[in-house]
């Protein structure tokens, strides 16, 4: 009888341990991006026949020279706007969906940029422009991470012969999140003091984790052939983490989700099928922050800011935002 109870106890302990391990793994990977309810008022499928973008040049370049140039650019359907920190890509156009795209899709957005730095001043360095999904205005709120928000987009990776011939990041797929942290306010960063460092304040801090597609050029001398790979931003210190190699050009699916514990979860796969747990790359607390709210998703288009070198032609389709566990945000978006 004693042996029977011991066997039963060991079996129950095994079951309990298995459940705990399964739960821990699921929590570590977060909600798979694309799970839950899609928010129809944000994102875009690019199927509107008259889709357009009003650039309102010159663009903003706040991050470089502290200049925000109003009015900023925005799409005619109100779903996109120019990022004021760096300005919008110079060329955007809805084009026929490349072969192998989402079933039923007839249009996708082509993005390229040329003058990615300060208007009228070439830097001859890598710069980037931003195209931002208009989430907060259309939803009238940021999304709490308690609702496990996520974002998904399909990206067409062009043949390598079409890429800008430059080492480094070419496209960024990013989130804007916020939290509370002890930081030095921007106003104090500009004031130099010989005697003491600027004091920190406990305040709302916006940060921008994401994934970047990097190019390795065969003309660099270090590589025998052109190739590309993904990096994740970032780890506890904000440094980039090496992700998967891009061994197949054509369509890829990228997604990120936030979990109630403040982590960010990164996923990617070739093709346009929905993401699954098998597509998980890593889960991180970028900059050691615990996310509190999801603000939006946006895209960086990068190039050498020399006035003659266009960026790689990037095409995106069906960028979408999802929530889990609550109807409040979904109802506001109706």
Task: Describe the protein in words.
By secondary structure, the chain is mostly beta strands. It has one domain (45-332): Jelly Rolls, CATH 2.60.120. Helix content is 14%, strand content 38%. The strands form 3 sheets. Strands 4, 7, 8, 10, 11, 12, 13, 14 and 18 form a 9-stranded antiparallel sheet that branches. Strands 1, 5, 6, 9, 15, 16, 17 and 19 form an 8-stranded antiparallel sheet that branches. Strands 2-3 form a two-stranded antiparallel sheet.
SSE topology:
Elements: H1 2-29, E1 37-38, E2 53-54, H2 62-65, E3 74-75, E4 80-82, E5 91-96, E6 107-112, E7 126-133, H3 135-139, E8 143-144, E9 150-157, E10 168-183, H4 186-189, E11 201-207, E12 210-216, E13 227-233, E14 240-246, E15 250-258, E16 264-270, E17 280-284, E18 293-304, E19 314-323, H5 328-332
Antiparallel strand pairs: 1-19, 2-3, 4-7, 5-6, 6-19, 7-18, 8-18, 9-15, 9-19, 10-11, 10-12, 10-18, 12-13, 13-14, 15-16, 16-17
């Amino acid at each position: 009888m004693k042996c029977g109870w011991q066997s039963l106890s060991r079996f129950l302990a095994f079951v309990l341990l298995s459940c705990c391990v399964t739960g821990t793994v699921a929590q570590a990977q977060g909600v798979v991006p694309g799970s839950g309810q899609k928010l129809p008022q944000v994102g875009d499928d690019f199927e509107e026949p008259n889709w357009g973008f009003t650039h309102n040049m010159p663009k903003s370049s706040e991050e470089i020279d502290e200049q925000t140039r109003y009015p900023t650019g925005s799409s005619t359907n109100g779903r996109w706007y120019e990022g004021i920190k760096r300005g919008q890509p110079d060329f955007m156009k809805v084009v026929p969906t490349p072969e192998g795209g989402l079933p039923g899709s007839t249009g996708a957005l082509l993005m390229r940029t040329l003058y990615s730095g300060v208007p009228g001043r070439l830097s001859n360095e890598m710069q980037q422009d931003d195209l931002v999904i208009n989430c907060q205005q259309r939803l009238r709120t940021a999304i709490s991470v308690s609702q496990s928000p996520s974002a998904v987009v399909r990206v067409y990776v062009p043949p390598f012969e079409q890429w800008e011939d430059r080492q480094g990041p070419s496209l960024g797929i990013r989130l804007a999140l916020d939290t509370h942290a002890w930081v030095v306010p921007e106003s104090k960063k500009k004031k130099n003091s010989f005697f003491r460092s600027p004091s920190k304040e406990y305040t709302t801090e916006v940060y921008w984790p994401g994934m970047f597609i990097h190019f390795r050029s065969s003309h660099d001398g270090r590589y025998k052939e052109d190739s590309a790979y993904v990096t994740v931003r970032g780890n506890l210190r904000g440094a980039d983490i090496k992700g998967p190699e891009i061994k197949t050009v054509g369509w890829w699916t990228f997604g990120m989700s936030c979990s109630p514990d403040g982590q960010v979860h990164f996923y990617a796969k070739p093709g346009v099928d929905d993401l699954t747990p098998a597509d998980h790359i890593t889960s991180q607390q970028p900059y050691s922050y615990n996310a509190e709210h999801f603000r939006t998703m946006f895209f960086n288009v990068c190039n050498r800011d020399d006035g003659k070198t266009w960026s790689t032609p990037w095409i995106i389709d069906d960028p979408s935002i999802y929530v889990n566990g609550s109807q409040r945000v979904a109802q506001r978006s109706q």
